[in-house]
Q: What sequence folds into this?
């Protein structure tokens, strides 16, 4: 590692006129550090506000006066840096000074004479010369050339020669990796095997830079150019590669104080022309101050790119270019001040060595072997990569006895051998996994035996559903039987369906699919769609959802519902509404057809009018008259017909709209009535099921029941029944104070046991208790509790049959 402060040099540009006397002097007599004294001319000194100093002294590594040759500059400034780059260190040389002070001349060189070649071509020449001389290493050289203007990076080595402005060049962006290394995306690296190739690249970059420059952007004075030589070296046979970078930087003009006013007065407030130079200064200040932990490199692209060069892994050199003419004194002083700060920055350059991964593997393998040998000496046994069969067996034995050991304190000792420890874990994992699989199968079989106090498992639920299905099938058979019987009494019975959907199916929608005239003909809110099946489906599903209507009724229940429906008082209203609805539907249908006709008529009329019009125009052209002299009577007639038809259409459409509203309303009414009916049926159903349970054997004693609640009296009875039910006193109203008894074990078995029954058992007198006689029913023997569907279905048939027989005079 080489610790070094940034080297600062000063170069004074030759003045056009003879050197102005007394402006500056170079003192090189001092043995250690030469100094540059800038003497303020009288008239300028008066203008300085705060101090009346007349001269300023700045120390530099070396000061190159006006007559210093490019060769000297290279030898003294660039060559030492190039040498350290050849040795594997990073290096940076940057020129700093106001515009016109000779930065470009110093870094790149003058365009006229070969002797005016600057640092870049000379360094390239020197490096390639050295590379050729040194046959002990294999070198590779790459070149990149970056221009930064207005915080944007541009690749100057774009070979397309198409750039007419900076924006045409590839844009370069700065990326930072997690290790805070800077990467430049889009900056091309070009290999240069010879000095010539490298110079060509320099030329390409300078040409691009020149072409891209316009008087508008003044790129050369306001942009920074970084020419970088990337050098890699490797000794033959060695795995160590060295990387070094040499940045040769031509900075933007440092002028930052606007010159205004009379008598050379300076503005006290500095105005920065170039923001990134401002940030460079911030970084320099931060670096030169002790105990500053944060260095604001990220503030600008330039400081990000030069991060290593400033206070990092780099040997850095600054050349302060000075134009010491009277008018530039202030800028020169400011440049020198800046240089003084830069001189305080310490860099730590390290060799950038990278080890070839192949060598790394060989090294690590060797290290592993050495460690293994060491371990063998300590443990007294040679350690192989894998455990032996005997070791496996021994370990598993230990694990088994460890697991079987009931002592909670017991330990599994395998020694400090990672192979054994890992094996133990794997073995235990395997055991655990095996147990898990085994465990789940046991658990599932256990569920079968569990009583229903546990929530029903999916499997159990499926089973119950299957049983239910079976029952439904049984019911189907019964229904068929019942139907046969019903046929005998067919004449007296006619089940009319109240389902509106049937009505729907039988009638096609009378509403026209759309408005033939488009939105123009109708008010914007006009409905253009008929109440189609999807909306009514939606509504009915909504109703089902809201009322809890059963989507699927068992056949028995359906039968019972049909009877209930038929005898219900509301059925008249529903039937009436149904008739009206039917009527409206046919009206709407007829209207729809008329509308369709009118629509096609309108279309036809329009077509005729167009045709007629075309004919007339063609006639006009053939007769050479632009406008027909007399109005076309036929066309006028057609037009009035069209208007009439449109009016008719509009009137019919309005009527249809009104019909649609009415139909919608009727449908809603019917839906409502249907829901009401359904709810009442459900209530009746539940009531009957319960009373059947408490009055078993119910099959033979159904006479006491009114088949369907339809009269106010029967409704009163039902409410009484309901109130009795809720009081827990299970008496059947029309049978007097008869105490509930249930001697029919079969009925008890097949009937569900709803909550109130248990409740009544608790409250009734000992004589009514059933427990003594009826063994506790196993829960699994009756699939559904609370839902009396299946068994009650059977009862419903019986009841329905009873009703039918009663009505048809069979009984
Ligand atoms: P900068 O890049 O700092 O704006 P330049 O390098 O373009 O300034 O210099 C401005 C002019 O001065 C150029 O014409 C250049 O050739 C000339 N010049 C600068 N320094 C020297 C020098 N040391 N010897 C001869 N001419 C110089
Ligand atoms: Mg320049």
A:
């Amino acid at each position: 590692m080489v610790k070094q402060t940034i080297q600062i040099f000063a170069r004074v540009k030759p003045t056009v006129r003879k050197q102005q006397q007394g402006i500056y002097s170079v003192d090189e007599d001092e043995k250690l550090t030469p100094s540059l004294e800038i003497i303020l001319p009288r008239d300028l000194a008066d203008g300085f506000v705060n101090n009346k100093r007349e001269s300023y002294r700045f120390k530099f590594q070396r000061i190159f006066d006006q007559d210093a040759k490019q060769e000297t500059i290279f030898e003294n400034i660039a060559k030492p840096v190039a040498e350290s780059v050849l040795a594997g260190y990073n290096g940076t040389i940057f020129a700093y000074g106001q515009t016109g002070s000779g930065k470009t001349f110093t870094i790149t060189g003058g365009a006229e004479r070969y002797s005016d070649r600057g640092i870049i071509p000379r360094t390239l020449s020197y490096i390639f010369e050295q590379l050729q001389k040194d046959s002990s290493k294999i070198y590779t050289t790459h070149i990149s050339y970056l221009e930064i203007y207005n915080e944007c990076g541009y690749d100057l080595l774009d070979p397309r020669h198409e750039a007419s402005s900076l924006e045409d060049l590839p844009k370069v962006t700065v990326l930072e990796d997690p290790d805070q290394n800077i990467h430049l995306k889009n900056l091309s690296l070009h290999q240069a095997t010879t000095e010539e190739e490298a110079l060509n690249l320099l030329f390409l970059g300078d040409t691009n830079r020149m072409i891209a420059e316009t008087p508008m952007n003044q790129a050369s004075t306001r942009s920074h150019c970084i020419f970088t030589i990337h050098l890699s070296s490797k000794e033959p046979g060695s795995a160590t590669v060295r990387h070094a970078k040499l940045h040769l930087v031509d900075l933007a003009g440092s002028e930052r104080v606007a010159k205004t006013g009379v008598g050379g007065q300076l503005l006290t407030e500095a105005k920065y022309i170039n923001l990134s130079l401002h940030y460079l200064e911030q970084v320099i200040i931060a670096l030169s101050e002790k105990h500053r932990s944060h260095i604001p490199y990220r503030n600008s692209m330039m400081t990000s790119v030069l991060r290593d060069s400033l206070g990092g892994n780099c040997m850095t050199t600054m050349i302060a270019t000075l134009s010491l003419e009277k008018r530039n004194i202030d800028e020169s002083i400011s440049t020198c001040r800046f240089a003084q700060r830069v001189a305080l920055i310490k860099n730590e350059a390290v060799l950038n060595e990278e080890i070839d991964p192949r060598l790394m593997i060989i090294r690590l393998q060797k290290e592993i072997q050495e460690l293994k040998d060491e371990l063998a000496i300590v443990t007294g046994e040679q350690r192989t990569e894998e455990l032996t069969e005997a070791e496996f067996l021994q370990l598993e034995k230990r694990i088994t006895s460890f697991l079987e050991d009931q002592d909670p304190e017991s330990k599994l000792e395998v020694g400090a051998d990672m192979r054994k420890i890992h094996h133990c874990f794997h073995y235990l994992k395997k055991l655990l996994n095996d147990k898990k699989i085994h465990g789940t199968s046991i658990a599932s079989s256990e569920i079968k035996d569990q009583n229903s106090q546990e929530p029903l498992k999916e499997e159990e639920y499926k089973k119950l559903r299957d049983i239910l299905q079976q029952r439904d099938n049984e019911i189907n058979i019964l229904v068929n039987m019942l139907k046969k019987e019903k046929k005998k009494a067919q004449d007296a019975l006619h089940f009319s369906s109240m389902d509106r959907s049937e009505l729907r199916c039988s009638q096609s929608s009378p509403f026209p699919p759309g408005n033939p005239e488009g939105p123009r003909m109708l008010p914007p809110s006009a409905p253009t769609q008929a109440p189609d099946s999807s909306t009514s489906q939606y509504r009915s599903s909504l109703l089902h959802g809201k009322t809890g209507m059963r989507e699927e009724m068992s056949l028995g229940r359906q039968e019972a519902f049909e009877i209930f429906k038929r005898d219900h008082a509301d059925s008249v209203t529903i039937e009436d509404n149904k008739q009206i609805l039917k009527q409206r539907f046919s009206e709407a249908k007829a209207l729809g057809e008329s509308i369709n006709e009118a629509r096609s008529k309108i279309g036809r009329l329009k077509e005729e009018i167009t045709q007629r019009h075309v004919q007339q125009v063609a006639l006009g052209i053939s007769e050479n008259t632009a406008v027909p002299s007399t109005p076309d009577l036929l066309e006028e007639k057609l037009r009035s017909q069209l208007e009439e038809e449109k009016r008719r259409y509009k009137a019919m459409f309005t009527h249809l709209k009104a019909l649609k509203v009415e139909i919608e309303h009727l449908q809603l009414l019917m839906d409502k009535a249907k829901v009401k009916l359904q709810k009442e049926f459900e209530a009746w159903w539940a009531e009957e099921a319960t009373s059947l349970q408490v009055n078993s054997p119910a099959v033979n004693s159904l006479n006491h029941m009114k088949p369907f609640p339809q009269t106010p009296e029967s409704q009163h009875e039902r409410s009484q029944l309901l109130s009795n039910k809720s009081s827990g006193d299970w008496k059947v109203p029309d049978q007097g104070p008869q105490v509930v008894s249930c001697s029919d074990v079969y009925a008890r078995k097949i009937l569900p046991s709803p909550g109130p029954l248990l409740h009544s058992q608790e409250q009734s007198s000992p004589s009514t208790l059933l427990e003594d006689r009826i063994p506790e029913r196993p829960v699994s023997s009756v699939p559904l509790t609370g839902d009396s569907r299946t068994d009650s279905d059977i009862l419903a048939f019986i009841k329905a049959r009873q009703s039918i027989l009663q009505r048809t005079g069979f009984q």
Observations:
- The pocket of magnesium ion (ligand 2) is lined by residues 103-104, 220, 250 (CB under 6 Å).
- Residues 155 and 479 are 91 Å apart (CA to CA).
- Residues 633-694 form the longest helix (62 residues).
